[in-house]
Amino acid sequence: MELNPVEEKINVDTIETPLVQVKNLSKTFVLGKSVLRQALGKKPEYLRAVYEVDLAIKAGECLGLVGESGCGKTTLGRCILRLYEPDKGEVLFEGKNFLEMKGRDVVTMRSKMQVVFQDPYSSLNPRQKVGRIVGEPNLVHHICSVSELDDRVKNLLNTVGLGPDIAERYPHSLSGGQRQRVGLARALAVNPKFIVADEPVSALDVSIQAQVINLLMELREKYQLAMMFITHDLRLVQHVSDRVAVMYLGSIVELAPARDLFILPLHPYSQALLAAAPVANPRKRKKAIAIAGEPPNPINIPPGCPFRPRCPLSFDRCAVEFPRLEEKSSGHFVSCFAVK
To answer: Assuming Cys at both sites, which of 48, 106, 283, 325 could form a disulfide with 333, CB separation 3.0 to 4.6 Å?
Structure first.
């Protein structure tokens, strides 16, 4: 059975209705619910991981998501896929609210939205052979019949650059790059329209990273996949993304076309983040932008702008009002009162 690439390429610049639209999405985790803590009379604490995020991703578009560790990138991706249940907000896929769906509708929608996890080993069942790992989604979502399954699995493995003999091997006998390709084959098995790639190459050797990234971009072009690409690597996100969103303490602080963001970042945090990225050319030096202080405790985020305690541009309004994303130039959104 053949995979079915989209014959007519989609021009993402001409699409008005996004494939995926996130509105006011928030997620808070409750900490300290242990029996001992309750016996001592201590109240539970709340960690605000994602706060009122608005995003839109067009069909065929790659949106890069960057930010420092612990800012909520992975949590946002998992909330969109309902691997975590958000506290509030909407996730619209092709105009339908995924968060309101129940039962079989959720299973059907999940076939259109897939994920490639960061760790290519722990994301695969060590007790199953690769053939079953890749083949099982086809049967669950009725992509093909049992008689067609072997051909389908071979075709999927071939699509991600693996030979048919891999189907008879267990994940522990594969290299990191091979395991990540298996994870990608599993994601492609159900013919998705949207993939969350959660730091898909961070656990791989540098030589293998380029192969997996090139494969992702080839598959995205061939099958017109929309993608959210989560990473710490700013050079990488500049290379693969159409637009880039910068995240800080659970909120999007800047969203712009990749070229615009890297040429002229507007938010003070984005400027410092890009200035800190190393340059491969030893003769080319960048002036680092120092950020005062430490990030606020996500369990006790101060009111107003979460970046205010470290921001050189903050003023009175920043302490009492949370800044929303506003369009400062064509397609360039910033959540900062000081940026005009």
So the answer is: 325
